[in-house]
Amino acid sequence: MLAVAAGCSAAGGSSSAPASPSPSYEAPPVTTPSTAAPATDTRQAALAALPPALRNRIPQFPPAPAPTKVTLPAGNAAGWFSRVPTDQKIAFITIDDGWVKHPQALRLLQAANVPTTLFLEVNAIKDNPAYFKALESAGATIEDHTISHPNLKGKSYAFQKSEICGGADRLAAYYGRRPVLFRPPGGTHDATTLRVVKDCGMKAAFYWKETTDHGVVFYQEGKTVKPGDIILMHFRPRFPDDFLAVLNAIHKAGLTPARLEDYIP
Ligand SMILES: [Zn+2]
Where is region (Disordered) located (predicted)? Predict the structure, then answer.
């Protein structure tokens, strides 16, 4: 399946990472995220700090509408979605793994001023969790993507629990908020996965409708982003191109990015 292959091949991020990965992330000299500075000031500062080739490709979106909650399944399994059922003119940006910590990601998120959901793999981010803390201050919400990115399908309850609960526990320790959403590595899962996700205190798990790589958005259905679509990208060496491709695909479809967590009861 092409879609699965495109999904989380970015463990390859470890091999395609920049030649000189810096162990400690240097925050760009923009507004201090912890202050109560208006988002517009942060946005303007980030736009000014970006090279024009990036700045000029960032679209402006109308505000997202008031969210409506999905209905989660009754019983002992978490919900499973590749699209949020809605007629609202919205789409969801999700960014996975965390191996490649691109120096422009913070500025790009600040300049776009849109919500994102980061499904982080603990092993990919543990060398520099602060990098993602900064992204949190720019509208990102950090969610669970296991500790070591295994294929979960067919694995025992205990194995899956160790990876899924363990990931949520570690991210809670790093960031002070326990994840409520989960993405299985590669999207691969079974009924046990959804039971474990719920038992680990999370509400829903997610696949996707579009993937992104090398600055190109790949569609599974049709040729445009549809309302409620969940779009997958990764922290890869071409993060700016991928992020800008996603933003412009959403904009071209007449949609605006919304916060996935706001749609889950
Ligand atoms: Zn992944």
Answer: 6-39
